[in-house]
Write a structure and sequence with these properties.
113 residues, alpha+beta, five-stranded antiparallel β-sheet, 5 strands, globular
Length: 113
């Protein structure tokens, strides 16, 4: 999708601090971090949100989570803890219409709700 910000980042049309890349996704540092470690894991294929995960995309969804966990380990967060967040829709705070996993850690994050 040519106008999608995250598609443009994933295709390297726009610059980003890339932490991981493979044939299915990229992981980039968030430009407005909400924690000392704030990485976004983006599929290279355009998927609008978590609501678009179906049987044909189960493998992709699992891969995004595995990459997020690997990034957490590489930042030393596996012992202290980290949060993975997927937002769907405006009420949940999704500001870019492209599926992405937020990895947040490096400080106590507190309870949600």
């Amino acid at each position: 999708m040519s106008g999608c910000l995250f598609c443009r980042i994933a295709s390297r049309e726009l610059p980003a601090d890339i932490r991981h890349e493979d044939d299915r996704c990229v992981a980039v540092a968030d430009v407005a971090p909400q924690a000392p470690v704030h990485i976004l894991v983006l599929p290279k294929a355009h998927v609008a949100s978590a609501a678009d995960i179906d049987a044909s995309r189960e493998s992709l969804a699992g891969h995004l989570l595995a990459v997020a966990a690997a990034q957490a380990r590489s930042h030393g967060l596996d012992s202290s803890g980290y949060r993975l967040v997927l937002n769907h829709g405006a009420d949940a705070g999704q500001s870019v219409g492209h599926l992405h996993v937020h990895l947040l850690g490096g400080r106590p994050l507190g309870a949600l709700g």
